Amino acid sequence: MTARLMFGLALATFLFLPLAACGKVGSPHEPGPASKITYGRVYPPDE
Q1: What does residue 33 show for φ and ψ, rounded to 5 degrees?
Q2: Helix, strand, or coil here: 32?
Q3: C-alpha Rg value of the chain to the nearest Å
Q4: What phi and psi, each to the nearest 5 degrees, are found at residue 36?
Q5: Which residue in 29, 25, 32 sits closest to 40, CA to CA?
Q6: With contact defined as beta carbons under 8 Å apart, do 39 and 30 qualify?
Q7: What does DSSP assign to residue 13?
Q8: 1-45 pLDDT, tens per residue?
Q9: What is the pLDDT of residue 43?
């Protein structure tokens, strides 16, 4: 590899590595009170 390619890869790594940490911490959960949540049920519903 040439020095220019190595520099480009290092620069790209240092620029894009902080973006990998973006997002919320913790498990996702449904919004709203637990008694009003309609998702997370088994499909197809028992009728």
Answers
A1: -70, 150
A2: coil
A3: 22
A4: -105, 0
A5: 29
A6: yes
A7: H
A8: 799 999 999 999 998 887 776 766 777 777 777 777 666 666 676
A9: 67
DSSP 44: S
| Cα–Cα dist 37/29, whole Å | 10
- Distance between CA 24 and CA 8 in Å, rounded? 30
Binned at pLDDT 50, 70 and 90, residue 46 comes out as low
Place of tokens 């902080």: 18
Distance of CA 28 to the CA centre of its chain: 10
pTM for the model stands at 0.41
Q: Which residues contact 8 (CB under 8 A, 6 or more apart)?
A: none
